[in-house]
Write a structure and sequence with these properties.
Layout (H helix, E strand, L loop, with lengths): L4 E7 L12 H19 L2 E4 L7 H14 L3 E6 L5 H7 L5 E6 L16 H15 L8 E4 L5 H20 L3 E5 L13 H8 L2 E6 L1 H9 L3 H6 L15 H21 L3 E4 L1 H8 L6 H9 L4 E2 L4 H14 L3 E10 L4 E6 L14 E8 L5 E11 L3 E9 L4 E9 L10 E10 L2 E2 L2 H10 L6 E5 L3 H11 L2 E2 L14
Parallel strand pairs: 1-2, 1-3, 3-4, 4-5, 6-7, 6-8, 8-9, 13-16, 15-19
Antiparallel strand pairs: 10-11, 10-18, 11-16, 12-13, 14-15, 14-18, 15-16, 16-17
Helix pairs in contact: 2-3, 5-12, 5-14, 7-9, 9-11
Length: about 475
């Protein structure tokens, strides 16, 4: 994938800033130098328009150069107070838009000589976009500060991460293999709406038999050489040679399948297709290892979950997982995030991720030993839960922390999560549960380590995704539309 391309232009007026800190040219150069440094650090490409923009015609010439360069994000700096015609023309760019003002270099003397009046220019530019150009519905993000200031650099970093993730989504391909798990109708999706809003290409017609056939086609030598499928587990002693071979075959098959068709994420009908094809085999440990090694994979045919996991990965590069919300505790304000065992081992506490068999009832009072799961308790760490929902027009944004001194929980990949926030605001367990149930939210929760809520809120703003709003608990019926 190509890098995100940032365009940078400076606007000014001839009667401002002549004596300010070496002149406005020096101020602009310092900004260019900082952006070049950030381009290396944040891995984006930079196009700098060399001439100051003073008139509307200047802006038109700059716009032609910007469009020719294929700029994704245009940053307009009011080096000094500037003419409104500059932003009227630039704001109609096809790129995402940012406007940036610098602090005053001097608080004394003539405003035209010693000052730059940059913030006033920023204020006017923002108002022109929001009011004069309101019918164009142009989004913009403002920035303020000298190059290198934390207020500028952190705000800019969030934008770069968000826009880079959006750009990558528009170049991505995601597949559903084997359909949605029986009865999991809440996971149904319309791929046309996903493609319209996110640009992601979705393929839903693959059968699980394609994976099964590929897995069984490998020679013994090919399986022996696929050592990455078992690396990282703290214990595999319980697993038989036969089950370890099944695990490796299906790990390799999913990886090779994704490479062959150029898929960036997968949703797998692991249940019941894997059990049917492999006489009780499970994909849990396979999915955990795929997630660990950079291929986001959602279980039970949850394609919106896979797309959400892919977006999380694009924001940080870190492995993701897919959880159920399986328990709540008002006593200590925690919720249990759990799933059968598809999580990457990097989430595990000091005991690590153990390969274990899943034991399930047969229906006649007996128990059956099935395939392998990645059994682990999550280590204490901040986590973010995010899912694209609705008609791909809403977003759940929940974060908190896996708490230390974990309480009891069933075998699988799991951790109790506290310090709960919805949309970066604290929320109680009762209000959270009420919010999820009143909104009719899906029962799957894509999760990743770290707090990426600022980046996700920015993604939501650029893509017009509406955050799922809190519905405080009441004893009477509550309805949201």
């Amino acid at each position: 994938m190509k890098k995100l391309k940032v365009g940078f232009v400076g606007s000014t007026q001839t009667n401002f800033g002549a004596g300010a800190s070496g002149g406005k040219e020096a101020l602009f150069k310092a900004s260019v130098d900082e952006l070049k440094r950030l381009a290396e650090e944040m891995c984006f490409s930079l196009f700098v328009y060399p001439d100051f923009l003073v008139t509307g015609d200047d802006a038109n010439r700059a716009m032609a150069a910007i469009e020719a360069e294929g700029v994704d994000f245009l940053l307009v700096q009011t080096v000094t107070f500037s003419a409104g015609e500059v932003i009227i023309n630039l704001a109609k760019t096809n790129a995402m838009l940012g406007i940036w003002a610098l602090p005053e270099p001097s608080a004394e003397g003539s405003i035209f000589i010693n000052s730059i009046n940059s913030f006033c220019g920023l204020n006017m530019f923002g108002s022109i976009i929001h009011n004069y150009l309101k019918d164009h519905e142009i989004k913009y993000k403002w920035f303020y500060g000298n190059p290198g200031d934390l207020m500028f650099s952190r705000r800019f970093e969030i934008t770069i991460k968000a826009l880079d993730a959006i750009r990558k989504m528009r170049q991505s391909r995601v597949a559903l293999i084997g359909g949605i798990a029986p009865g999991f109708n809440d996971l149904y999706f319309d791929e046309r709406l996903a493609q319209k809003r996110l640009g992601v290409e979705i393929q839903r017609n693959h059968e699980f038999s394609e994976i099964n056939k590929l897995a069984l086609s490998y020679s013994a030598k090919e399986i022996e050489s696929c050592v990455e499928s078992l690396e990282g587990f703290s214990s595999i002693g319980e697993a038989s040679k036969e089950n370890l071979e099944i695990h490796t075959r299906f790990y390799k098959a999913h990886m090779d399948f994704a490479r062959e068709f150029n898929y960036d994420a997968l949703a797998i009908s692991c249940w019941p297709k894997m059990q049917e094809e492999q006489n009780g085999g499970l994909s849990c440990s396979v999915l955990g290892k795929l997630n660990q090694n950079g291929l986001p994979v959602a279980c039970e045919g949850d394609l919106p979950g896979a797309v959400s996991m892919l977006l999380q990965k694009y924001l940080t590069g870190y492995p993701t997982t897919l959880m159920d919300l399986s328990g709540i505790s008002e006593e200590d304000q925690t919720i249990l995030m759990w799933h059968c065992g598809p999580s990457p081992e990097c989430y595990a506490d000091e005991k690590g991720a153990c390969l274990r068999y899943s034991v399930q009832p047969t229906g006649d009072g007996e128990e059956k030993v099935l395939g392998l799961i990645a059994d682990m308790v999550f280590k204490p760490q901040p986590v973010t839960v995010m899912r694209l929902t609705g008609e791909w027009d809403k977003i759940l944004l929940l974060d908190g922390a896996i708490v230390p001194n974990q309480k009891c929980s069933p075998d699988g990949s799991r951790g109790w999560m506290g310090e709960l926030r919805l949309n970066r605001r604290c929320i109680t367990v009762r209000d959270l549960v009420n919010t999820l149930l009143v909104h009719g939210f899906e029962h799957h929760y894509p999760m990743m380590a770290g707090d990426i809520t600022e980046e996700l809120m920015e993604v939501a703003a650029w893509l017009d995704l509406k955050p799922l709003e809190e519905v405080k608990y009441e004893n009477y019926l509550q309805v949201v539309k």
